[in-house]
Amino acid sequence: MHILVTGGAGYIGSHTCVELLNDGYEVIVVDNLSNSSEESLKRVETITGKQIDFHKVDLLDRESLNAVFNTTSIQAVIHFAGLKAVGESISIPLSYYHNNVTGTLILCEIMKSHNVKNMVFSSSATVYGEPKSVPIKEDFPVSAANPYGRSKLMIEDILRDLFVSDNRFNIALLRYFNPVGAHPGGSIGEDPNDIPNNLLPYISQVAVGKLPELSVFGGDYPTPDGTGIRDYIHVMDLAKGHIKALSKLESAPGIVTYNLGTGQGYSVLEMVEAFEKASGKKIPYKIIDRRQGDIAACYADPSLAKIELNWSAEQTMATFVRPPTGHGFFRNTKIRYSAGYIIS
Ligand code: NAD
Ligand code: UFG
Fold first, then answer.
1. Helix extents (H) in 172-252
2. Residue 135 preceded by cis peptide, ω within 30
3. Does 336 score more than 70 pLDDT?
4. Which-ligand-closest: CA of 151?
5. 122 has pLDDT over 80
6. Residue whose C-alpha is closest to residue 55's, from 43, 39, 38
7. Which CATH architecture has domain 2-180+232-260?
8. Which of 31, 59, 87, 212 is the least buried, fewest Cβ under 10 Å from its Cβ?
9. Listing from the earlier edge strand, what are the strands of the sheet with 297-298?
């Protein structure tokens, strides 16, 4: 079975390619490499011993994308490609809407014209906005607080409308909670180009002395230690969720929506403490004002995915931040990983 993976060179995409290849799928990747490098796909090939059919193509380039569909018979698309930085989306909203929404429209039009009707889409827990309670279920109201989140909601709506217009489509909307970690070999992982926005890559750069200290955004939330609580899900578990979603599409379920999270929330300070224990490094931090747009607590009720996909997260926080599991050269820098995070 041939699967087209858009954004397959990126963080979650590359880990999902590993699982797809290990499961015997043929993988075609389109990625414009705007936030990734072809090196990650080479490493996926090394890990799996299998080939990826890679096309450096932008989803906005209709002709080139169409050419990929012309040359291969594609049975399903896993659609990761998109811009994902919340803060940046506030500064350059038009680019976010154009890239994420228009890119998806073009992809869907081409899928339709080639009679490809199966899609797994990377949505996000951000679509729940400020939830009325936790844990969050799939039928909670949705809203968005920034252009990135709105682009995800718009795409979800577009895909729901697409299904209404043609019920031969089968679409899985996967709402990820907070992806962390890396393949255990340590050769692929999260590799932000700039100063990281997300908690664990930031902590890891503090651990290696690249950044002086962590700023903890808010110590006055209504949580046990006053810091924000999130549901950190290991990227390999997330990758496996995509394989389960693909299998689900084979049973022609129509449009389905699943939370992919662990169901367990941890505070920022709990994450810092766990990282310190695992790495043996002190993580200096200071508590500063809340970050605009952040919420107190966000964690999943993942029971629907358990029931309907037979999927649940296997890794716990102890395995996210365990002592080094591998060595690797990443973008020509020799670094040592703790479950994917640089620690020396
Ligand atoms: P990533 O930036 O590592 O991967 C996205 C990939 O898409 C990159 O390789 C990038 O080069 C590519 N891309 C972007 N625009 C493109 C375009 N127009 N044409 C072709 N390729 C394009 O991000 P990720 O963390 O792997 O996220 C994957 C998906 O999951 C994204 O849609 C993201 O919004 C979603 N998501 C991520 C998180 C998270 O915290 N990482 C949480 C929820 C949802
Ligand atoms: N945090 C800090 N300091 C930092 C970075 C983060 O204290 O330097 C805190 C945040 O305030 C929050 C927690 O750590 O309480 C997690 O923050 P992240 O930025 O790692 O993640 P978010 O929950 O804000 O958002 C992430 C992705 C979104 C995605 C969402 C899904 O960035 O794209 O998870 O739940 F939509």
1. 199-207, 235-250
2. yes
3. no
4. 1
5. yes
6. 38
7. 3-Layer(aba) Sandwich (3.40)
8. 212
9. 266-267, 229-230, 297-298
Q: How far is the CA of 342 from the centre of ligand 2 (A)?
A: 18
8 A C-beta contact, residue 202 and residue 190: no
Q: Which amino acid is at 307?
A: I
From-to residues of CATH 3.40.50.720 in the chain:
2-180+232-260
> 122, 148, 230, 317: which to mutate for ligand 2, most atoms within 8 A of CB?
230
CATH class of 199-230+263-298+314-343: alpha beta
Question: What's the Cα-to-Cα distance from 55 to each of 1, 9, 66, rounded to whole Å?
Answer: 18, 10, 12
Residue 188 has what pLDDT? 85
Instruction: Give dist(CA 305, CA 258) in Å, integer.
Output: 6
Neighbours of 113 (CB within 10 A): 10
What number does the ligand 2 atom closest to the CA of 86 have?
33
As a whole number of angstroms, the distance between CA 203 and CA 27 comes to 33
For 28-86, write each residue's pLDDT tens digit. Answer: 999 999 998 899 999 999 999 999 999 999 999 999 999 999 999 999 999 999 999 98
Which pLDDT does position 223 carry in this prediction? Answer: 96
* Residues assigned a catalytic role: 148
**Cα–Cα distance list, 278 to 175, 243, 282 (Å):** 29, 30, 10
| Side chain identity, residue 28 | I
> Percent helix, strand, coil in the chain (nearest 5)?
40, 20, 40
d(CA 89, CA 124): 15
- In this prediction, residues 280-301 reach a mean pLDDT of 94
Around Cβ 19, how many Cβ atoms within 10 Å?
Answer: 18
Which tokens in the block code for residue 309?
A: 């996909």
Q: Helices 268-279 and 199-207 sit at what angle, rounded to 10 degrees?
A: 40
8 A C-beta contact, residue 283 and residue 275: yes
Per mean pLDDT, which range of 24-33, 183-192, 275-284 is the poorest? Answer: 183-192
User: Distance, CA 16 to ligand 2 centroid (Å)?
Assistant: 22
Residue ranges, CATH 3.90.25.10, the chain: 199-230+263-298+314-343
Q: What is the pLDDT of residues 217-239, one digit of tens each?
A: 999 999 999 999 999 999 999 99
